[in-house]
From TrEMBL:
Keywords: ATP-binding, Helicase, Hydrolase, Nucleotide-binding. Transmembrane segments: none annotated. PROSITE patterns: HELICASE_ATP_BIND_1 (PS51192), HELICASE_CTER (PS51194). GO terms for cellular component: cytosol. InterPro entries: DEAD/DEAH_box_helicase_dom, DEAD/DEAH_RhlB, DEAD_box_RNA_helicase, Helicase_ATP-bd, Helicase_C-like, P-loop_NTPase. Belongs to the DEAD box helicase family. DDX21/DDX50 subfamily. Residues 91-268 form the Helicase ATP-binding domain. One of its GO terms (molecular function) is RNA helicase activity. It comes from Hibiscus syriacus. Residues 1-30 are annotated as: Disordered. It comes from the Eukaryota. Residues 297-408 form the Helicase C-terminal domain. This is DEAD-box ATP-dependent RNA helicase 3.
Length: 408
């Protein structure tokens, strides 16, 4: 359970002794044996050190691979340690083929939980895969509320099972490349509901052979207005399938989806009655500041607490995002991210931030939905959001998979 601390007065000096020291807590780890048949030949699927296993303590993870002619094995995962409750709780019933509705804290990471069972089944089915190599229809559909989350999930699956054909579809870019990829045959489609509907209506995407459905961050699909699109997509899917739904909160619409479209789902609640649903490892500090003084202290706050690492500053308006970023640029490399920025510039900005070309990203809530930025050290809420759930989802952009993060 995170608590809110009052931050000490800020005095920027060159002495490390005057800086508040944050001592990370060593994470606990547990091993999980996976009930897979073992085959000795591996070649292609990197299991250790990839984003698919981002929830693991990598010092415990061996490097192992699998191909269409082998299956993921218990021996391949020997010593593998899971830190996240949702990974442990979801993985086994998912492997058993159960429909699942999982309420999990934002920022815990779920690709592993649904990725391993799906990749395992697609890998085992090598004979059918070969017969259907050309022009085959997708067997896996993953819905995500934002293009960033969709791209991240597709990237992790692609890097972990390169022999599977994966396609990521989302709006704001040309249809041509996405249509071409679908026409060549695909195993896994990951995308946002709006673009998926467009491709269904143009007859470029056919979902008649989907066997596995994943809805990731379902509550955020409601927040961005995708509820009708999601229901239309689910209506078009075969009734015989395995479905997994993940959500940080359970509004009535998400519960309705589960009742209508999931088959006797196993309910997994990893949040319980906690009012606060932040991921472990997030430490909150509060600073008393006026509207004028907070811009003055922002640069010092980042210098002292981020210590050269990545920082995300959240604002409520596009104007504030631009003005704060411009004010910071004189002392700290920063860029703004908001809804008026083109898709090309948005991707350029995010790639630059991920690669460390600048260390401060100033973003609005809408622009930041679905961001998955590794190694963020500091979050600053320049203005608090209007509701608790937005605060939780802001916080979920960091502190992912057990990382220790400060927030002001």
């Amino acid at each position: 359970m995170a608590s809110i601390h009052t931050a000490p007065s800020l005095e920027v000096t060159s002495s490390a002794a005057n800086r508040r020291k944050i001592t990370p807590t060593a994470p606990t780890s547990r091993s999980l044996s996976l009930p897979f048949a073992f085959k000795s030949q591996f070649n292609g699927l990197v299991v250790g050190g990839t984003p698919l296993l981002g929830c693991f303590n990598h010092s415990f993870v061996p490097r192992a691979v699998a191909t269409p002619n082998s299956v993921l094995s218990e021996q391949a995962f020997e010593g593998l340690s899971l830190h996240q409750d949702d990974d442990r709780a979801v993985l086994v019933p998912a492997l058993e083929g159960r429909d699942i509705i999982a309420r999990a804290k934002t920022g815990t990471g779920k690709t592993l939980a649904f990725g391993i069972p799906i990749i395992k089944r697609l890998t085992e089915d090598d004979a059918e895969r070969t017969r259907r190599m050309s022009g085959r229809l997708p067997r896996v559909l993953v819905l995500a509320p934002t293009r960033e989350l969709a791209k991240q999930v597709e990237k992790e699956i692609k890097e972990s099972a390169s022999y599977l054909n994966t396609v990521c579809v989302y709006g704001g870019v040309s249809y041509t490349i996405q249509r071409s990829a679908l026409s060549r045959g695909v195993d896994v489609v990951v995308g946002t509901p709006g673009r998926i509907i467009d491709l269904i209506e143009s007859n470029d995407l056919k979902l008649g052979e989907v066997e596995y459905l994943v809805l990731d961050e379902a509550d955020q699909m409601l927040a961005v207005g995708f509820e009708e699109d999601v229901e239309e997509i689910l209506e078009s899917l075969p009734s015989k399938r395995q479905s997994m739904l993940f959500s940080a909160t359970m509004p009535s619409w998400v519960k309705k989806l589960a009742r209508k479209y999931l088959d006797n789902p196993l309910n997994i609640d990893l949040v319980g009655d906690q009012d606060e649903k932040l991921a472990e490892g997030i430490k909150l500090y509060a600073i008393s500041a006026t509207a004028t003084s907070k811009r003055t202290i922002l640069s010092d706050l980042i210098t002292v607490y981020a210590k050269g690492g990545k920082t995300i500053v959240f604002t409520q308006t596009k104007r504030d995002a631009d003005e704060v970023s411009m004010a910071l640029t004189s002392s700290i490399a920063s860029e703004a991210l908001h809804g008026d920025i083109s898709q090309h510039q948005r991707e350029r900005t995010l790639n630059g931030f991920r690669q460390g070309k600048f260390t401060v990203l100033v973003a609005t809530d809408v622009a930041a939905r679905g961001l998955d930025i590794p190694n963020v050290d500091l979050i600053i809420h320049y203005e608090l959001p209007n509701d608790a759930e937005t605060f939780v989802h802001r916080s979920g952009r960091t502190g992912r998979a057990g990382r220790k993060v400060l927030q002001f």
